C-alpha cells in the first residue's frame, strides 16, 4: 500500500499510538473537567502538525509545525500531571504516558535539528 511521506516518520507513528492511548485515558475523565477538553485536543494536535509540517517545502515552515507538535506533546505531559494531582488517574498511568511522550519529543527534536541549520546544536 502506498503511504504519504509523513506516515513513514517514526514520530508520526508513535504519535498515533499515543492518540490511541490518550483516548483510553479520556474515558476516565469526566467531560465536565477542563483538562478533558485539553487532553482531547493536545494529543490530536501532535500527528496533525507532524503531517502538515512534513508537507511544507521550506525548512523554517517544517520546523514551525514540528515545534507546534512538540509543544502539544509537552502540554500532554502537563495534562497528565494535572490529572494525577486531581486524582483522576494513577501516577503509574501518567508515567506510562510520559514515557511515550518523551520518545515523541526526542524524535521531534531530531526532526527540528535535521531541518534547521541554526538549531543543529
UniProtKB/TrEMBL annotation:
Tagged with keyword Ribosomal protein: yes
A Pfam cross-reference name: 23S_rRNA_IVP
The residue stretches assigned to a coiled coil in this entry are none
Q: Which GO terms describe its cellular component?
A: ribosome
SUPFAM superfamilies, alphabetized: IVS-encoded protein-like (SSF158446)
Which UniProt keywords are listed?
Ribonucleoprotein, Ribosomal protein
Q: What is this protein called?
A: S23 ribosomal protein
Amino acid at each position: 500500500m502506498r503511504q504519504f511521506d509523513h506516515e513513514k516518520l517514526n514520530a508520526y507513528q508513535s504519535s498515533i499510538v499515543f492518540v490511541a492511548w490518550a483516548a483510553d485515558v479520556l474515558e476516565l475523565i469526566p467531560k465536565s473537567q477542563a483538562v478533558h477538553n485539553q487532553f482531547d485536543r493536545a494529543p490530536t494536535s501532535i500527528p496533525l502538525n507532524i503531517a502538515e509540517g512534513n508537507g511544507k517545502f521550506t525548512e523554517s515552515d517544517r520546523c514551525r509545525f514540528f515545534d507546534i507538535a512538540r509543544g502539544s506533546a509537552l502540554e500532554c505531559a502537563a495534562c497528565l500531571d494535572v490529572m494525577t494531582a486531581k486524582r483522576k488517574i494513577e501516577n503509574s498511568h501518567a508515567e506510562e504516558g510520559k514515557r511515550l511522550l518523551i520518545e515523541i519529543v526526542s524524535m521531534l527534536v531530531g526532526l527540528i535539528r535535521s531541518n534547521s541549520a541554526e538549531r543543529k546544536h
